[in-house]
Amino acid sequence: MTDTAILRELEKKVLWLASWMIHNANHLRENPDGLKVGGHQASCASLATIMTALYFDVLRPEDRVAVKPHAAPIFHAIQYLLGKQTRERLEAFRGYKGAQSYPSRTKDTDDVDFSTGSVGLGVAQTLFSSLVQDYVRMHGWGLERPEGRMIALVGDAELDEGNVFEAVLEGWKQGLRNCWWIIDYNRQSLDAVVREGLWERYEQLFKNFGWDVVILKYGSLQQAAFKEPGGAHLKEWIDRCPNSLYSALVFAGGAAWRKRLNDDIGDQGDVTRLIERRSDAELAALMNNLGGHDLPTILDALHAVTHDRPTCFICYTIKGFGLPFAGHKDNHSGLMTPAQMDAFRKANGVRPGHEWDKFEGLADPAKIDAFLKRVPCAQGRDRRLKAARVPVPDELPVAIQPVMSTQAGFGAILNEIGRGKDEFANRIVTASPDVTVSTNLGPWVNRRGLFAREHMADTFKSERIPTTFNWEFSPKGQHIELGIAEANLFILLGALGLSHAINGVRLLPIGTLYDPFIARGLDQLNYACYQDARFIVVATPSGITLAPEGGAHQSIAEPLIGMAQDGLASFEPAFVDELAVIMRWAFDYIQRDGEATPSERNWLRDETGGAVYLRLSTRPIEQIRRPMTATLRQQIVDGAYWLREPGPNAQVVVAYTGAIAPEAIEAVGLMAEDRRDVGLLAVTSADRLNAGWTAAQRARERGLVRARSHIERLLADVPPHCGLVTVIDGHPATLAWLGAVAGHRTRSLGVEHFGQTGSLAELYRHYGIDANAIVAAAETVAPGRPIRHLKALP
Ligand SMILES: Cc1ncc(C[n+]2csc(CCOP(=O)(O)OP(=O)(O)O)c2C)c(N)n1
Ligand SMILES: [Mg+2]
Question: Taking the model in full, what pTM does it have?
């Protein structure tokens, strides 16, 4: 048996197993909820041949792949044959702890390299992973391993997603190498058949950005038929045939092909004979033999790439190839009926009861078994690499000015780190989408330089023109400057933040952007977190506090995003000493990979680690001179501390977050004469406070009656009658829940509308988060005599 013959058997097997897995989940397994299970049998089928060629032959252990979301069952079937997936998980496909509907790095157990699901993101992830591989190797790390190719199996409709092209543009700027995108050009999306001639646009586009483009249109049967007399006419007909008609004829089968071909070109002698020489089945096989379903064509094309240029393969395929609904435009969610499945089972030579057997129905099990054992990509160690943690200094020194913003503090802290020659400073890599200077990364970049594969001098510097920033590129630079596409920033952070697992080399990535533009890359941020990538994102400026900067740049929802985003710990410090503590913790936190058991101290799952979001501000505020004690440090990280502890008879507590601190402090001062024992709670992380509180409640409900979260301890001695006013330059709901912790009457101030420009005083008054508004709110939740310092409200 030749290797190609074995691969043909495996292709059949893979399609059978994927189809059976989906069938089992829908028709055989009990699904009590009345919900559709689904499974994308058609989407799987169009990639079955390409994935067979790739996984069983072309891939090398160092290559990494993002599989089109809907081809997950094919992927799991392949891993099953390679001994990396269990039958139990296949049987539980889409069920509890079963194989996932879309390949998942974090939830699947069979070596998923990159998660997919939100179309377009996995595609871009491979591109940025190639850049990160270059970054790592250019810095002299990981050279003991061979260079891998980062490969995306792309659904053609994924190319509708703009993020793919943002990535292509960035890849061109950065000198992308070792990246393959294999497009499953089945000319179908979810709803319908795609526009004619898209391949020509793609071909031009990719070539424009420096990619090689390889088109796999005709399979080897077709190529042979084109050489027969009349073959040229057949080829011409195929080339002219609209996508929809081709799909419809694929669905209709051999007799329909014959009729249509005879009607269109059957009067041309040679070609008539070419058609007539074939039975209906043979004719259908010929017409269905597109490049993407022809093993020899695919293998030749993939093996022919011996260079490192980025390469796009446009592979003509048929959605549902080999299945009864092949080519039908409605097949996306199509499932084979039990009768169709039975026929398919027989066609595959599978006996009832032997559906999961690896070698059932295969021509030469012993040979195939031996072949599977030597499949190149399954050789060697784990695909998930490990990298030691980079030691983080106990403290991050920073010279704190009497009046300073958190953004300036961030720049100053990194500038200090930038002086270092140690491993810690060397492993930091920063990135920014064209806001490097305006987010205060300038001093760091001056020290550490920009990254590029080739040296590029700063022309201003070489021309001796005075300039603040040294914009010099080199392979040793530690800042990756991106174009203004926040989507790319988050995908890059995802790739940098997985370098320990993909390249075996740990990086400490920091990305900066303006806070409102988190929304621009939000799905990418979610995607990076979903993959458990580790990075620090610094968003600044934020809120309405950026005042004259303009209404369009104000952010409201981001604190809530910070709270709700899984895998992301969010902070919004007010003072630079807090920021230094949080950043030190963050550098450690992003490297953790321990157990998910909550700590009894704060009920957070801190040992698991995660990514970190810092919401900073450009507002210079008066800093507090104070010693940084171990307790304060811990409380800052846990999410809150008393800036002024409320007395035993406290009538009002003000809880604030971030740059609005001076207004909260002022308001507390204004109330001091008329309300007793006023407290001031500094909330450095609403996210962590809230998560700890929720976890502690859950623990109590499960019987751990003594479980207490950090916020519960902080509020434990605040008398029940005390009113609570919360204030943040962001959505008021961020802190509103504080009232529910111990049942205090609460009024939450924040920003619900945005867009006005002006001075800080004007805007804080306009949106009702100034000292006056805090005092007025306090009066409503903490009755008593009028507060004398309450200024007349406008
Ligand atoms: C961001 C996003 N939007 C929408 C969807 C829903 N969706 C799933 S598959 C699909 C069409 C995919 O078509 P294509 O990439 O050509 O794959 P095929 O099914 O043809 O294999 C859509 C719209 C999604 N998964 N992600
Ligand atoms: Mg498609």
Answer: 0.97
